[in-house]
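Recall that a protein's primary structure is simply its ordered list of amino acids. Everything else, from secondary elements to tertiary packing, is in principle encoded there. The following example makes that idea concrete.
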Amino acid sequence: MKAIKAMDKRIGIVGGGPGGLLLARLLKRQGMNVAVLERDSHATERPQGGSLDLHDETGQKAMQAAGLEAAFMACARPEDQGDRLYDENGRLIFEHDGHGANRPEIDRGDLRRILLESLEPGVVCWGQRINAIAFEDGGVSVFCENGSERFDIVIGADGAWSHVRPFLTDIRPVYEGVVFLELGFEEKRDPAAAALVGHGKMFAVGNNRALILQRNGGGHIRFYAGMRMTEDAALALRDASPADVRTHMARYFSSWSPDLKRLISEGDFLGIRPLYAMPIGAKWITHPAVSLLGDAAHLMSPFSGEGVNLALADALDLAKALTQGGEIAAIQSYEQTMIARAASAGARAAAGMAKVFSDQGADSVLSHYQRRIQEV
């Protein structure tokens, strides 16, 4: 069989999140034949989540390589890099305005829009819900609810519950023992929440519980009430009514400062989020035509702030491997780099979550913040 040149290969990217879209952008700039299969029927079908901070050595570097640095900086919020830490009594015990940091915030929806607008119409195929993939006669068939597509190479960029991952490995995300109640606030409507969060994000930490506020763009504020809980209890809570969820969560914060615990009864209900993560260092046997990036490969808790940055760094490295021929040795080299980078970040994420949800209250988190500002 005649070998297919890299530029002639048809590449299917399953998942239209930041990692998958950036990979498509990088490959299209090299003249490659790319299609993104996205389950949403259109770009604004679902809310895209809260604010993200892009790191200079990973996320920002990838946006620069894609020629999107100016578009990113036009939407970024370098003024929202501050941190605040409260104890459960509402006492402010740490504050830093973010001066000297180089991790500007951007709303996930804005980042996705920038990436979508960088692609030609038709590259993203909307409404493609993937059921499975199969390697047949040297190519990869992707089976969707409304038919199938055939590619030379398929990349799973389809998040935590990837439909591509099971083709490579039986490893699945494991429950982390923590669940979040997510709410939304508006600065004009909820000035008390805005005053608590300041310019950036705030944590209030105590006895295996945490309340978190995160400033987003446009006057929006995300709120998370987190606590340790069994997986069965978390899944049952996910199926409860919003009113019952608030009542249940409020019991666990009954001894906290009134200014903090009242947030649970206010704001717009957005959902219950049990936290899952892939085992740190998860790997598989490299396949010549199928690989993964981002959460599909290395889902982790948000406590290292690395999720989207790793996805964008993965896309940059994988684009180089694919444009240089896409041979199995290049894909294997990419996966080794990606897995090592993710293992380090995953360990930091696990350690960060253990600090926040501990019986030491805010003390261990305070020590973390104090060390970090000394390194800036």
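The mean pLDDT is 93. DSSP finds 13 helices and 17 strands in the chain.
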